[in-house]
Amino acid sequence: MKEKLLISLAGFFIFSNTFSQKELPEFGNISVAELSSTACNFEKDAPAVYLLNYAKTEFETYYDGSCDLVTKRTIRIKIINQKGFEYASIAIPHLGNKHTSKIRDIEAFIYTLGGNGDIVKTKVDKKDIFRENISKKNDLNIVKFTFPGLKPGCIIEYQYEHLEKNTFDIDPWLIQNSIPVALSYCEINFPAASLLDYRLVGPLPFTKSNYREWPIDSTKGKFTKTFLVKEIPSFKPEPLMSSVVDNIERIEFSLNPRPGFVTMLARSTDEKWKLIADRFMSSLRFGKQFDTDLPGSGPLIDSVKALKTKKDQTNAVYQYVKKQIDWDKHQTLYPYDISEIWKSKTGNSADINLIILNLLKKAGIECYPLLISTRENGRADPSFAHMNQFNGLNVLVLDSANYYVLDGSSKNSNCFIPPLNVLNRDAFLILPSACKWVNINETRPLVKDSVYINAVLDKDGLIKGEAVTTSFNFSRNLRLDEEKQSAVSSNDLLSGGITELKVDSTWMKNKEEEKLPLVSHMRFHLPLISSDNFIFLNSSIFNSIRKNPLTDSSRTTDIDFMCNQQYTQTVNLILPGNIAMETIPKSIMIRMVDTSMVYSRKVIQRGNVLWLENELIISKSVYSPEEYPAVWQFFRKVYALLSEEIVLNRKD
After folding, report:
1. Closest of 537, 614, 531, 533 to residue 574, by C-alpha
2. How far is 170 from 254, CA to CA, in rounded Å?
3. What is the mean pLDDT of residues 319-347?
4. Which of 94, 175, 310, 337 has the fewest beta carbons closer than 10 A?
5. What is the pLDDT, as a whole number, of residue 86?
6. Is the model more confident about 107 or about 538?
7. pTM for this one?
């Protein structure tokens, strides 16, 4: 289901508060008042607004027990100004091939006011509706179209049906969107013998005046659950937010089409999770593959058993599988036949990690499956007992008092550091005869950068020197990823937007040694800004935290630093005899009241040598919106100090 939610997010009203369940606007019934309105009455600066976001889901069941899912969608959007034109470019993503998923019966219209004040209705021609396969491997498709004659004030409206074959998975209902929503309506019709669970997710403080859900209606030979929400503000991503999925308002569903007697008896959440764990362990796809034969793996297992420590044994299996099996970039909970993956040497994240677990068990290492939900997928909820909230399978290894969380699909990772995408998250651990929720955490600063700059300033105001950056743990991985994604070396990224800086040469050490920090060297020269006899040097040059990410004075989402962090920058600058230090920053230390953040600056002058050290330590990973004012003030102070300049005086 979460995979569907991410697909839905990729496709990312001027009414009074009088709608009831039976008073939904009919398709094509547009009023002059709606067309004449010039703003959204509950979010005045919105460039567009959903007047209606409607979904009605029906299950079509067959005598053989199979089932098709049909969802009818109706969307009506008011385009308020030209900035809202982008919301008239429609993209409807869906998963599946032509036999399993189809978008059908599309109708789309644009409504404008004519010169006489009458309503002009224009239909989108079928030939202007395009279907495209985005990924054959992942069966990702998209239907695209736009509307002719767009202008401020117009209304666009479209409807379609989404047919999904042989499924009981109901898409999450996104209450919130990138523009405000005047009315959101969702109706789920499901078979009478099935069991529907749902949960409302998100931070919005709904009240009786804008949120209503009706009791399940069973009067028509089927069950119906209905939700209606009004005047929903737009979703605005914020810097250092954990993920969109963690924060956007939505309803998630889970339908059990044929709950057995044991399922019906499982009343408590713990009982439901135990039932899920038992099914996992007995499944041919999961537990039954723990001891699947992997041809030719015998010598590897023998060599692993010969190693002296569990730590070395774990690392040997982890490194071997990472080198042998290529990740196909598909993050999922569901593995295929791992004996086939072992032969083909390409698999999804679950395939790779299940192979690691299989080999570790055969080598006699205590390890267990760990069901995870990555940051992108959103937090797992222990109170909502359903498998569909997970999107990954990792491996937990126990080594006396230590534990290791392994993810073989992360190519730059060290197996003794928890994967960044699940750090500070709850995960579901399945043991042979029990199950439990665990929190994956780490107190070490896993994003850690140390920059040492040794430089000389000549008499003309040109700095020449070398910067050495040592990147530990996740910083190492992030810099290697940056290097792959950019056309320049990751050393060049240290310039942080200093356009005057010229890189003379760069090189790296320890790129292939995962256990060692990445060491990046850069030789450079930089002409300084001068005015008359004065020369100016920013005290935070080459600092990897040059730009303040927290500039807004208010916030609605958590700040998620992902892990504890530490940044250190040391500058050793030698001045020529004709240049003296006019003004230098003072040594200082500031900290949060709870000491979870500390910034310090040390400045030492010895003759013609200036020694400057900046250090920022963040020892708390997540801050709530209520804690934001203190964090915001702290960052304001830090970046004010970082912007202070060293003023030098040239004496001719």
Report:
1. 537
2. 7
3. 94
4. 337
5. 96
6. 107
7. 0.84
Residue with tokens 């993050």: 331
Rg (CA), the chain: 29
366 SS3 class: coil
Determine the Cα–Cα distance for residues 277 and 370; give it in Å rounded to an integer.
11
241 three-class SS: coil
**Residue 534: which residues within 8 A CB-CB, separation 6 or more?**
582, 647, 648, 649, 650
3-state secondary structure of 56: strand
Beta strands in 46-118 (DSSP E): 48-61, 67-79, 90-95, 101-113
Spatial CA neighbour of 187 closest among 153, 166, 221, 213: 213
Alpha carbons 630 and 635: distance in angstroms, whole number: 9
| Contact status, residue 310 vs residue 363, Cβ threshold 8 Å | no
pLDDT over 90 (residue 303): yes
Domains and CATH numbers, the chain: 2-15+49-259 (2.60.40.3140), 269-440 (3.10.620.30), 445-650 (2.60.120.1130)
> Is 17's pLDDT higher than 60?
no
Spatial distance between the Cα atoms of 489 and 8, rounded to a whole number of angstroms: 35
pLDDT at res. 42: 95
> Cβ of 297: how many Cβ atoms within 10 Å?
19
Helix (H) or strand (E) holding 182: strand 181-190
Report the alpha-carbon distance of residue 491 to residue 511 in Å, rounded: 13
Contacts of 156 (CB under 8 A, 6+ apart): 76, 77, 79, 88, 108, 109, 110, 111, 147
- How does residue 204 score in pLDDT terms, banded at 50, 70 and 90? confident
